[in-house]
Amino acid sequence: LKTALFKKATKLLNQNTVDEKKEIILLNKLAHTNCWKVFLPTLKKSLFSDQQFHREQAFKILDLKKSLTQIERDTFLTFYILKGPLIGKIFNQAWNTVRELGQSYTRRALVLEKLTKMDPLPDDIFALSTPNKRRTLIKFMFKNLPEFFNFYAKTCLNYLKGKKFKAGNPTFYCKEFFKLSKNNPWPALRTKLEYKNIRSKLKRGRL
Question: pTM for the full model?
Answer without folding.
Answer: 0.91
